[in-house]
Design brief:
Elements: E1 4-9, H1 18-32, E2 36-40, H2 50-56, H3 60-77, E3 82-86, E4 90-92, E5 105-115, E6 121-135, H4 140-154, H5 166-176, E7 180-181, E8 184-186, H6 189-197, H7 201-209, E9 216-218, H8 221-224, H9 231-244
Parallel strand pairs: 1-2, 1-3, 5-7, 8-9
Antiparallel strand pairs: 3-6, 4-9, 5-6
């Protein structure tokens, strides 16, 4: 058994063909590093207690954010020394530089570029859970999972999709300063559009505010269709990233 397990999940069949390119990039990276791969479908949600899953209801993003923590716990309990979660829309485009840290755990970096109410471009510096890494003996995974479940049980109102994902994780990070894989980023629609077109103000601002060069990034499949990205555009973006990254 490999000491490292990489986990991905998505419903089958995939809703977008370009997701396969992202998943193939993670598989290739795992194989190059002799990591074990695990893909799981909707049975991922079986790891959530029925009562809690019923409360979450149709908010599958929230359910996924909790279930990924459960399956990462399960991987460590099964004997792996290190477990990694990669979203299905996470692309590793520079595998040689996508290096795991020596820390007990790590999260991804989010530099989100969008327009404010006055249509001025702004960046929001956060962390994300599209890439998560935990080693055996870490104390954060159990704490994070317990905190997420506690918030879900206590909540009596509306829950935004990022409730226990990036919002909770960023709040915790702002207090305890989680180890961050700076090369594991996330691209907002404005940045992706500029990348496809070759230039733009959002891309320039993203480059300026990013603490280091990226080797992988989440491409936000939950937003691409809503923002009008076609499969052809996403495939073009992925090919560009695989060839020259983000410079």
């Amino acid at each position: 058994m490999s000491a490292t397990l990489v986990i991905q999940s998505h419903r089958d069949p995939l809703p977008f063909e370009w997701l396969r390119l992202c998943m193939d990039s993670v598989t290739s990276w795992a194989q190059d590093n002799q990591f074990e791969m695990c893909f799981i479908g909707d049975e991922l949600f079986d790891l959530i207690e029925p009562e809690l899953f019923e409360k979450i209801g149709a908010q599958t993003v929230i359910a996924s954010d909790l279930a990924r923590l459960k399956i990462l716990q399960q991987g460590l309990a099964e004997g792996y020394d290190r477990v990694i979660w990669c979203d299905a829309d996470f692309l590793i485009f520079d595998s040689g530089q996508f290096l795991l840290p020596d820390s007990d755990f790590a999260v991804g970096r989010e530099i989100w570029v969008q327009q404010d109410k006055s249509e001025k471009l702004r960046t929001y510096n956060k962390v994300h859970n599209a890439l998560l890494m935990f080693r055996r003996g870490n104390h954060f995974l159990d704490f994070y999972c317990d905190a997420a479940e506690r918030l879900l049980r206590l909540n009596q109102g509306r829950m935004v999709p990022q409730f226990i994902g990036p919002k909770l994780l960023t709040a915790l990070h702002n207090i305890i300063q989680c180890p961050v894989m700076e090369m594991a980023g996330m691209l907002s629609p404005l940045v992706m559009r500029d990348l496809i077109e070759g230039q733009g103000a959002a891309l320039s601002l993203f480059r300026k505010e990013s603490p280091s060069a990226l080797a992988g990034a989440n491409l936000g499949s939950s937003l691409t269709e809503r923002e009008g990205f076609s499969d052809a555009e996403m495939e073009k973006l992925i090919k560009q990233l695989m060839v020259k990254g983000i410079r």
